[in-house]
C-alpha cells in the first residue's frame, strides 16, 4: 500500500465531515489559495467539457476566492437557493493515488452525497479527481475536478453537494 494512502483517505473523510457539519472555516482551510474547483457540464451522453474557460461548467472557481464567496453568501443569508441549508451526508469510496511529476498527488475517488431539504431526500453521485500537495502532516487541495454522473438535477447544486 502507498504510504500516503491512509493519510489521504483520512484527509478526504475529514473534508466530507467538515462539509456535512458546515464547519466552513475549517473546510476552506483545506484548499490552497490558488486551488481550482471545476464541475464540467456534459456535452453529450459520454463526453463532458474539459476546458472551463472555453466550455460550459456547472461550477467553476479559478481559485479559492470563489468558494469563499459562496460561504460568505451562505453565512449572511444572501443565498436564497441555500436557505435553509440542506442536511448532507458525503460518502467517499475507491480512493486511488498516483504521484505527479510536480511532487503533488493525483487522487481519484468515487463519491455520493445524500441531502435532505424541505421534507425531501435526494442524492448526487460521481467521481472526483484531486490534486494534493503536502502541507505539514496533512494536505492542501490545489485542484478539485468533479464529474457529476446524475446530470439531471432536480434541486439546487452547490459546492456542498459535491
Structural topology:
Blueprint: H1 5-20, H2 24-29, E1 31-40, E2 57-61, H3 64-76, E3 87-99, E4 105-117, E5 120-135, E6 138-148
Parallel strand pairs: 1-6
Antiparallel strand pairs: 1-2, 3-4, 4-5, 5-6
Explained architecture:
The chain is α+β, with helices and mostly antiparallel strands and 162 residues long. The protein has one domain (5-161): Nuclear Transport Factor 2, Chain: A (Roll), CATH 3.10.450.50. The chain has helices spanning 5-20, 24-29, 64-76, and strands spanning 31-40, 57-61, 87-99, 105-117, 120-135, 138-148. Strands 2-1-6-5-4-3 form a 6-stranded mixed beta sheet. Strand 5 (120-135) and strand 6 form a beta hairpin. The two termini are 27 Å apart. 23% of the residues are buried. The model has no long low-confidence stretch (mean pLDDT 93).
Describe this structure in a few short sentences.
The chain has helices at residues 5-20, 24-29, 64-76, and strands spanning 31-40, 57-61, 87-99, 105-117, 120-135, 138-148.
Write a concise keyword list for the protein shown above.
162 residues; 3 helices; Nuclear Transport Factor 2, Chain: A; six-stranded mixed β-sheet; globular
CATH architecture: Roll
Which overall shape is indicated by the principal axes computed on the Cα atoms?
A: globular
Structural class: alpha+beta
- Strand order of the biggest β-sheet: 2-1-6-5-4-3
CATH class: Alpha Beta
Q: Topology as H/E string?
A: HHEEHEEEE
- Count of β-strands: 6
Count of folded domains: 1
Our Rg estimate from Cα atoms comes to 15 Å
Amino acid at each position: 500500500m502507498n504510504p500516503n494512502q491512509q493519510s489521504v483517505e483520512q484527509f478526504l473523510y475529514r473534508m466530507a465531515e467538515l462539509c456535512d457539519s458546515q464547519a466552513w472555516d475549517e473546510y476552506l482551510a483545506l484548499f490552497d489559495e490558488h486551488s481550482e474547483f471545476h464541475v464540467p457540464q456534459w456535452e453529450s451522453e459520454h463526453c463532458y467539457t474539459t476546458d472551463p474557460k472555453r466550455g460550459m461548467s456547472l461550477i467553476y472557481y479559478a481559485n479559492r476566492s470563489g468558494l469563499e464567496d459562496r460561504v460568505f453568501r451562505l453565512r449572511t443569508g444572501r443565498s436564497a437557493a441555500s436557505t435553509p441549508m440542506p442536511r448532507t451526508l458525503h460518502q467517499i469510496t475507491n480512493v486511488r493515488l498516483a504521484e505527479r511529476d510536480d511532487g503533488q498527488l493525483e487522487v481519484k475517488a468515487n463519491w455520493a452525497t445524500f441531502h435532505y431539504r424541505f421534507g425531501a431526500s435526494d442524492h448526487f453521485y460521481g467521481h472526483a479527481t484531486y490534486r494534493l500537495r503536502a502541507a505539514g502532516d496533512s494536505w492542501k487541495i490545489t485542484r478539485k475536478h468533479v464529474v457529476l454522473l446524475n446530470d439531471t438535477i432536480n434541486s439546487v447544486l452547490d459546492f456542498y453537494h459535491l
